[in-house]
């Protein structure tokens, strides 16, 4: 029989593929802008060769555009690298504000497609947890996907990590109209699997406006 | 002043910087370009102006490129639509072909190739319109012999509105 870890890994592979595809898409957009900037520079050079005065400010603007896109692509690759290496770390101490911001950064395009803007509420003190980072990322993404489907009119979600004895909680706010019937469809099997692996619990606010993922501070 | 011989291109992409750059390059190729950064904006632009070719990004916030393709084809049957995507898949290419896309290209692409495809799309549009006009004119000619004045007027109106 497959172990819990094997089953979660199979689910994780699907998640890894989805996020990687989204990251590569974003990288391609950045390359496309650089491609068009280079192309326009060539067009302008050709016009200059044919006697048209070269507009220096336009050339400078294209140089700045390329620099901006190089920085953007560099950040995308850093995130991709961090995401890829998260698979190597079976157990690690993570700081949740930083971790949640990283999750939002690598899923920005998927959220934008759903017209969702998500932010992390910063805390005065760091909120740390020892856990399996890749599987926690997967679980948070699944909760985020559910939250996006039930986001309110503002289409804005706020993720708040906090220490709440005896555990650590991540609150997902900006949701509307969750009723008892949603408890029947969420969490599904794949979320339950990850919750078992991470010893996590999911709580739904009685007024249907918030979900909270509760984690143990230290996973053994 | 608008030049009736220039190809009119509707460009739809949520990356503003990409939209600006490629618009400039198309203008240097003597195309008339209008940019739209969402499906909703594109539908409004298509209602307000007569375009020959639309270039549509597949993944956009809200309405995606395939949904936009379907709506534009339903409302403007002679508008030829080229799909651009940063994430090409066989499934989406097949879906876009089924919905009537003229071509499906992956980013980053060769600009000169895209320009050639736009010109091909424009020629295809003219041919389709010509064929349609021809059969409508034949219909009107027949009707002028046997039809009532109202029927003839209706047929002429259909000819006039065929791009809508």
Provide a concise account of the structure shown:
With 220 residues, chain A is an alpha+beta fold. Chain A contains seven helices and seven strands, in the order H-H-E-H-H-E-E-H-E-E-H-H-E-E. In chain A, helix 1 (4-49) crosses helix 7 (189-198) and helix 5 (133-149) packs antiparallel against helix 7 (189-198).
Principal-axis shape of chain A: elongated
Cα gyration radius of chain A (Å): 22 Å
Which structural class is indicated by helix and strand composition of chain A? alpha+beta
Which chains share the greatest interface? A-B, 24 and 19 residues
Main-sheet strand order of chain B equals: 2-1-3-4-5
How far the N terminus sits from the C terminus of chain B, by CA atoms, comes to 23 Å
| Helix content estimate of chain B | 55-70%
Secondary-structure content class of chain B? alpha/beta
Order of helices and strands of chain A: HHEHHEEHEEHHEE
Q: Strand portion of chain A, in percent?
A: 15-25%
**Order of strands in the sheet with most strands of chain A:** 2-4-5-7-6
Q: Please compute the radius of gyration of chain B using only Cα atoms.
A: 18 Å
The geometry of chain B reads as elongated
Account of the 3D structure:
The complex is a heterodimer of chains A (220) and B (164). By secondary structure, chain A is of the alpha+beta class. In chain A, the strands form 2 sheets. Chain A has a 5-stranded mixed sheet. A two-stranded antiparallel ribbon of chain A has the order 1-3. In chain A, a hairpin with a 2-residue loop joins β4 and β5. In chain A, α1 runs antiparallel to α2, α1 crosses α7 and α5 runs antiparallel to α7. Chain A starts with a helix and ends in a 5-residue tail after the last strand. The mean pLDDT of chain A is 92. Chain B is α/β, with parallel strands linked by helices. Chain B is 55% helix and 15% strand. In chain B, strands 2-1-3-4-5 form a 5-stranded parallel sheet, sandwiched between helices. In chain B, β1, α1 and β2 form a beta-alpha-beta unit. The longest helix of chain B has 36 residues. Chain B starts with 7 loop residues before the first strand and ends with a helix. The mean pLDDT of chain B is 88. The chains are: A alpha+beta (220), B alpha/beta (164). At the A-B interface, α1, α2 and α4 of A face α1 of B.
């Amino acid at each position: 029989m497959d172990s819990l870890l094997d089953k979660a890994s199979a689910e994780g592979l699907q998640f890894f593929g989805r996020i990687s595809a989204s990251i590569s898409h974003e990288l391609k957009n950045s390359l496309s802008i650089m491609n068009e900037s280079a192309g326009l520079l060539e067009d302008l050079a050709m016009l200059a060769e044919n006697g048209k005065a070269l507009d220096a400010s336009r050339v400078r603007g294209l140089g700045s555009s390329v620099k901006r896109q190089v920085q953007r692509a560099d950040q995308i690759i850093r995130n991709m690298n961090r995401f890829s290496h998260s698979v190597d770390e079976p157990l690690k101490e993570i700081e949740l504000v930083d971790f949640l911001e990283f999750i939002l950064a690598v899923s920005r395009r998927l959220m934008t497609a759903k017209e969702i803007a998500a932010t992390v509420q910063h805390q005065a003190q760091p909120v740390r947890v020892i856990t399996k980072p890749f599987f926690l990322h997967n679980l948070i993404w699944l909760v985020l996907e559910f939250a996006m489907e039930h986001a309110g009119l503002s289409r804005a979600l706020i993720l708040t990590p906090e220490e709440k004895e005896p555990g650590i909680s991540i609150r997902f706010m900006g949701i509307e109209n969750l009723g008892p019937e949603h408890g029947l469809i969420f969490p599904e099997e794949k979320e339950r699997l990850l919750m078992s692996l991470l010893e996590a619990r999911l709580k739904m606010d009685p007024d249907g406006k918030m979900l909270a993922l509760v984690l143990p501070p230290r996973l053994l | 002043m608008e030049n009736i011989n220039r190809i009119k291109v509707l460009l739809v992409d949520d990356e503003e910087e990409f939209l600006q750059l490629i618009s400039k390059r198309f203008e240097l190729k003597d195309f008339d370009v209008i940019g739209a950064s969402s499906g909703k904006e594109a539908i409004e632009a298509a209602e307000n102006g007569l375009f020959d070719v639309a270039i549509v990004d597949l993944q956009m916030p809200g309405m995606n490129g395939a949904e936009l393709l379907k709506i534009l084809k339903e409302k403007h049957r002679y508008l030829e639509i080229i799909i651009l995507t940063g994430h090409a898949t066989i499934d989406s290419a097949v879906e876009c072909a089924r919905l009537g896309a003229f071509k499906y290209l992956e980013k980053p692409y060769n600009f000169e190739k895209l320009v050639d495809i736009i010109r091909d799309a424009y020629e295809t549009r003219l041919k389709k319109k010509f064929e349609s006009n021809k059969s409508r004119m034949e219909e009107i000619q027949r009707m002028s012999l046997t039809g009532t004045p109202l029927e003839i007027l209706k047929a002429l109106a259909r000819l006039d509105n065929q791009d809508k």
